[in-house]
Amino acid sequence: QGLLGEALVEDGKLAEGIKVLALACKQAPEELDLLFTLGDAYFEAGKAGEAQKCYQQVLDLDPGQEEAWVSLGLVHFSQERIEQAEECYQKALQLEPDSVFALNSLGDACFAQGDNKRALETFQKVIDLEPKDPQAHYNLAEMYYDTGDLVAAENACRKALKLDAGFAFAYLTLGNICLDMDQNSEALQCFKEFLVLERSPGSKDIRTEVAAVVEGLEAEL
């Protein structure tokens, strides 16, 4: 049942997948992988409270699960509980100091709290540890973009896409950068790439917004 639930989730059938996974977890309540997968499915479906319960169950069974601490932190972060999120990331890093997953997430938390220096240092540490990690380059791009450094943002974004050509949100950010730099034709192509690549149920609203921008750019060009 766990494999079936996971397959349904991967196929975009979140509601069906969650039902199957929840039943599987009832039958095997101490199966950490099942709990983790169910938590991820709930989180993707926008059910933060249910996701939090699943990750907490994992940690109640095994407090040494570093990825569960990060995932629990991501739930807090999504609900704008940034300090609680950082606490979770720090616990993960106590277990695994070189966790790229935890460091990328910690960098986001630092940036959200206005600590740009620490965020930059954290993202740079990820790149030092794993130069080919596209997420760290993307995080840098987001940070540079938000602070108005368009050239640095563009460079970091292109590095992320060079490492992962299917990184949907990197195309979205690059499109926004190009738009701000009056490179409308390239912005249009980036937004179209985003719409092709990003299909998760949780991105419905942003897809609608981007589709409207695409329509406007096509009319203008």
Instruction: Quote the average pLDDT.
Output: 94
* Beta-strand fraction estimate: under 5%
Number of helical regions: 13
Q: Kindly report how far apart the N and C termini lie.
A: 51 Å
Q: What string gives the helices and strands in order? A: HHHHHHHHHHHHH
Strand runs, count: 0
Task: Write the SSE topology.
Layout: H1 2-10, H2 14-27, H3 32-44, H4 48-61, H5 66-78, H6 82-95, H7 100-112, H8 116-129, H9 134-146, H10 150-163, H11 168-180, H12 184-197, H13 204-220
Keywords:
221 residues; mainly alpha; 13 helices
Task: Give a summary of the structure in a few sentences.
By secondary structure, the protein is an all-alpha fold. It has helices at 2-10, 14-27, 32-44, 48-61, 66-78, 82-95, 100-112, 116-129, 134-146, 150-163, 168-180, 184-197, 204-220.
